[in-house]
Amino acid sequence: MTHPEGSDAVRLSITLKDIEPAPRRVVDVPLSLTLAALHNVIQVAFGWWDYHLWEFQIGTWRIAVPDPEDEAYPDDRPFADARRFPLSRCVTWGVERLVYLYDFGDYWQHEVRLERMFKADDPYALPAFVEGAWAAPREDSGGVGGFAEFKEAVADPFHEEREELLAWYGGPFDPANIHREKILDGIAAIRAYRMARRRKTRRPGSG
User: Does the global pTM surpass 0.85?
Assistant: First the structure.
């Protein structure tokens, strides 16, 4: 991955693993974005509902928001607080790939690749959705196996559970439909939130 001088943004390619065809989303984000904020971007990009625990994994490290009772993370892996871990640290560490794990039950593993760094023309326009392919599973689909069974059932007009599953899904299922407008709306909401925080933290008289 090249690192042009003055880079302040990075393009990420995020792929949901072990599914064929693999749901994939590409986003541009600031290097200053924390992994806690990247969690929100991924939730929007894949249509997740943020109902479950999550963590990023870099080698043996896990990066997440600490559990006050530490019940969710009983192992002894090195831990970092995702609210204080910017993407720029991945660059410092020489990391070009990390794993985002969402829902420890269904175990959705996303491969996050740092594709390229660049100087953003307008940092206030980030994060931005670039492109995507293939529909992601609905929340609580039962993991990779459950999602495969769902797709097989709804594709069969004679399957006895087809109508019930489509009602649960919330309408027709098109494996090629990534619900782009919902993604764009969600990313825009994240941008607006970040902008509001910048204004709130700007010192009086700083312009």
Answer: yes
